[in-house]
Amino acid sequence: MAGSVMRAKLLAQRIGWRLLAGVGVLWGAATAAFLTLHGTAGDAALSTVAGQGADPTQAVLDQVRRDYGLDLPLWRQYVDYLGQLLHGDLGESYQQRLPVAHVIEAQLGQTVQLAVGAIVIALVLAVVVGVLTAKRRSWVRSTTTGVELLLASTPTFVIGLVLLIVFSIGLHLFPVSGQDGLRSLVLPTFTLALPVTAVLSQVLRSELEDVLEQPFILTARARGMRDVAVRFRHALRHAAIQLVTMSGFIIGGLLGGTVITESLFNRQGIGQLMLVATTNKDIPLVVGVVIFCALVYVVVNLVVDILYTIIDPRVVTR
After folding, report:
1. What pLDDT is attached to residue 310?
2. Residues paired with 92 in a beta bridge
3. Which residue has the higher pLDDT, 300 or 315?
4. pTM of this prediction?
5. CA dihedral sign, ordered 72, 74, 79, 84
6. Could you read off the pLDDT of 274-285 as tens digits, one per residue?
7. 3-12: per-residue pLDDT in tens?
8. Residue (of 140, 145, 27) closest to 82 by Cα position
9. Cβ density class 113-129: b for 16+ within 10 Å, e for less
10. Do 270 and 289 contact (CB within 8 A), yes or no?
11. Whole-angstrom Cα distance, residue 318 to residue 295?
């Protein structure tokens, strides 16, 4: 009982420190995005009126700057924006004239479908490939490693183009673009999933090869347990911590990585929204998306920390 109470206290302390670090991550992300956008070329007031091709009068531009506080010193704009964030207000989009939270919410569903589908496929493929190729013949490992290195080092848009050429243009199995039904989700999902699979399977196989040399594995084999059962029932659990760690980092960054994929396949979502907002210098919307992605990263890594304790309770006491 005393041990359980102590473990619970240590876990609560660990989560508290992670939450404090998460606040720092959110502040850093918001600050970096705010300063970067204000330091780039272009006139936010001009973008707000009608885009960079418009020709409004100086009086109109001055009014827009006053309305949105763009005429204030940069430090004052920054302080005012942080004050809004502390009250849970992400501001209003310059272009769409809607609350940033509502704009993000409207596009979130498509990106979540894409990101969740990609990570599920990546985890399944990584576990299957990693478990079945660990400690195999050298040609099996060499071939698998070569394919993984190729996928991991190839830019996402190249993988997407290859999938489009083969499965859409060549075989006519899936639509080239759009988001009409599950068939239109297959190629963009695999475009995101394949590089992730390559990284995760390499990490998992490396861990499995160490675990498969442990005495308890030899004992399981001596009892007559089949090789596949030994790998999936015993070795996989002990090798899963590194897989969970890498999955946390990848999931946290996956939303931001959808920009290229959504653009390539002409899909709506957070990535496409970020691209358009950056082009139009829609500062509240860009910073809002950055904060949202950072929040996802923080939450995912907090969940990963909790999963550590389920997989290996000794992690809490370290």
Report:
1. 64
2. 99
3. 300
4. 0.74
5. positive
6. 888 877 777 788
7. 566 666 766 7
8. 27
9. bbbebbbebbbebbbeb
10. yes
11. 26
